[in-house]
Each structure stands twice: as C-alpha cells, then as structure tokens.
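Good morning C.,

I know you're traveling, so I'll keep this short. The sequence:
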Amino acid sequence: MADAIIRAQVLRWVSDAQPGWIEVGLVDADGQKHRIVEKAPVLTSRTITAESEFPAEFWLRADTGQVTDKRVEVTFAHAVETIEGLPGVHMRVADVRWL
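The tokens, ready to paste straight into the viewer:
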C-alpha cells in the first residue's frame, strides 16, 4: 500500500477504451515535467470521464524512499510508469503528503 500521495494534474481524457484512460502530468523536484498515461481506475477511485473539466488537481499514490529537507524519492503505486518508462521520480517535499 502506498504511504503517500504526490501533487499532479489530470491533463486530459485519452481514450474511451475500457475502462477509460487518462493523462496525468507532474513536475519533479528539478522542475522537469513528466506524463503518465494509464487506466483511470488504476490511478484513482474518483470518477473521471471525457466530460470532466481538465486540467484538474490530482494526487497520485506513491511509495516514498529517501527523504531530505527538500526532496523525496517516490515510486508510483501499482507499477505505474511515466511515458518514458520511469517507475518514480524525486519530488519536492511540499508536493508530497504522507498518508
């Protein structure tokens, strides 16, 4: 089970293919933008549809690793990866909430 959530945004509805796919964007501790395209129910229990308003604030589940005063190493929950194949990133402490 994930021990944190990280700040992100739902950017758009990608596909109606069951059960529906969304694109999520986040900015890491170095200011680099990352994108995740995944089935909506894998990322959230919220109801998101093609008619939802985008972009929208979103909190993505993650497991945390090393923590410093400014950065937190995170691995995305449910084996989620960025479109570049990254299983996690370093986030600013301010963009992480521990569960």
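Safe travels,
E.
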